[in-house]
């Protein structure tokens, strides 16, 4: 803990843009645009959270297609060009409407810069490795497509989260963050090694356990308020929540009451296409039992499919709905 307390984060060479004023909606019960570190979801296999000594920590980059191996200290990383970005992360084990998604402001170094410095080329440029295997100090392995982390997106080796050094439970001293990919194929915490290899040559931890080797985040939307089985009063009820489709963006959110027509919700301003968006819909609620359903359309124009699927092998999909009983009225 002493080594974390001594960490002083560098000023980013490329700071995040200010969050647009219209990106944060003042609706009671809605998820905040930025998820506080204490509330950010945690899903991993660590029975005991590693307490890594930042002074002794090293990151090794090696493997197929690496012209020059690199070994870096935390001080080395922090001395490089740093960037700050708002990025929403989601877990593949998140059920439709589930809590395993959050948005934070991350500070780190672009992973693609390190890879190119080591001589790595993506497959689209003739590179021999198509998989990057990140290893954690606790032995976890996570496989990520090389093409994805080198395609221009803000894939980071992050050491800062919402203005402070990474909390221990979120990967101190360094973790990976890759917009648009589920955590189990990108978000290695407590990282200590990056090996370039191929998907044919190596299966990372989750693949033999039935999960897909590649897993882009699926478009999802969630009703935060009213809560399931809530009992709002008749009249105008603000239905609100969040929608996410990292690296594609959210174009539209629609709400349906019972079996009625889809109605377009009001979207909060977009921060970036790598962050979730809040939304609201004012519902003139009549007394009785009602089902509220939400769906989102991403930046490519693709709308969430209705049919629900399980989280395995590559993430759940389907429409989120809540049942409420409206009270009051004549």
How are the SSEs placed, and which strands pair?
Elements: H1 2-5, E1 59-63, E2 70-72, H2 74-78, E3 83-90, E4 101-110, H3 111-117, E5 131-136, E6 141-145, H4 146-149, E7 156-161, E8 164-165, E9 175-177, E10 191-197, E11 220-225, E12 235-244, E13 250-257, E14 263-264, E15 266-267, E16 277-285, E17 288-298, E18 320-326
Can you characterise this structure?
With 330 residues, the chain is mainly beta. The protein folds into two domains: 2-208, Oxidoreductase, molybdopterin-binding domain (Sulfite Oxidase, Chain A, domain 2), CATH 3.90.420; 220-326, Immunoglobulin-like. It contains four helices and 18 strands. The protein has helices at 2-5, 74-78, 111-117, 146-149, and strands at 59-63, 70-72, 83-90, 101-110, 131-136, 141-145, 156-161, 164-165, 175-177, 191-197, 220-225, 235-244, 250-257, 263-264, 266-267, 277-285, 288-298, 320-326. The strands form four sheets. A five-stranded mixed beta sheet has the order 2-1-10-5-6.
Binned, the helix content reads under 10%
Largest sheet: 5 strands, mixed
Radius of gyration equals 21 Å
Structural class: mainly beta
Oligomeric nature of the chains: single chain
Provide the low-confidence segments as ranges.
Answer: none
The beta-strand count equals 18
Shape: elongated
Secondary-structure element pattern, one letter each: HEEHEEHEEHEEEEEEEEEEEE
Give the CA-CA distance, first to last residue: 61 Å
Question: Could you say how many structural domains there are in total?
Answer: 2
Q: Give the CATH superfamily of the largest domain.
A: Oxidoreductase, molybdopterin-binding domain
Looking at the structure, the CATH topology of the largest domain is: Sulfite Oxidase, Chain A, domain 2
């Amino acid at each position: 803990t002493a080594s974390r307390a001594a960490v002083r984060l560098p000023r980013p060479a490329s700071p995040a843009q200010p969050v647009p004023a219209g990106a944060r909606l003042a609706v009671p019960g809605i998820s905040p645009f930025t998820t506080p570190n204490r509330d950010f979801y945690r899903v991993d296999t660590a029975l005991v959270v590693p307490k890594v000594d930042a002074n002794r920590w090293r990151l090794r980059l090696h493997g197929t297609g690496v012209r020059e191996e690199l070994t870096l200290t935390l001080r080395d990383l922090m001395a490089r060009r740093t960037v700050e970005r708002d990025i929403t992360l989601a877990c593949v084990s998140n059920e439709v409407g589930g809590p395993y998604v959050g948005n934070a402001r991350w500070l780190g170094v672009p992973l693609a810069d390190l890879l190119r410095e080591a001589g790595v080329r993506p497959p689209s440029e003739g590179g021999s490795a198509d998989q990057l295997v990140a290893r954690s100090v606790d032995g976890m392995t996570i496989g990520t497509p090389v093409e994805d982390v080198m395609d221009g997106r803000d894939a980071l080796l992050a050491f800062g989260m919402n203005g402070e050094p990474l909390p221990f439970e979120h990967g101190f001293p360094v973790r990976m963050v890759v917009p648009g990919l589920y955590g189990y194929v990108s978000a290695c915490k407590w990282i200590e090694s990056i090996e370039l290899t191929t998907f044919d040559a190596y299966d990372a931890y989750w693949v033999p356990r039935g999960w897909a080797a590649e897993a882009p985040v699926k478009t999802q939307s969630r009703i935060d308020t009213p809560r399931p089985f809530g009992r709002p009063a008749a009249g105008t009820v603000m239905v609100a929540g969040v929608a996410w489709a990292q690296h594609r963006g959210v174009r539209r959110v629609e709400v349906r009451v019972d079996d009625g027509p889809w109605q377009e919700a009001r979207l909060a301003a977009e921060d970036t296409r790598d962050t979730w968006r809040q939304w609201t819909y004012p519902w003139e609620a009549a007394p009785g039992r009602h089902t509220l359903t939400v769906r989102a359309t991403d930046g490519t124009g693709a709308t969430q499919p209705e049919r629900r699927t399980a989280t395995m092998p590559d993430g759940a999909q389907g429409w989120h709905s809540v049942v409420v009983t409206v009270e009051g009225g004549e």
